[in-house]
Amino acid sequence: MKNLLANIKSGSPIFDVEVFGEGFVIVPKRGQEAEFAKMIDELTFHQSDEYAIFPITDGKLGYERATVMPL
Predict the structure, then answer these.
(1) pTM of the model
(2) Which residues neighbour 55 within 8 Å (Cβ) at sequence distance 6 or greater?
């Protein structure tokens, strides 16, 4: 799971990363909102004791951003 967190923290073509302390916020890039929502759904569904994810909805079917915190 730590590799997953490191991969997310390093960024992606579908989202930007804002690091703060040990946690980080991921924000979808313009035009990538649907892919970002799929990724957040997967991360939320497969949570473990390694991290907590706190997605913020966009008020529709996707997410505005998500905070990821290692535990």
Answers:
(1) 0.86
(2) 40, 44, 63, 65, 66
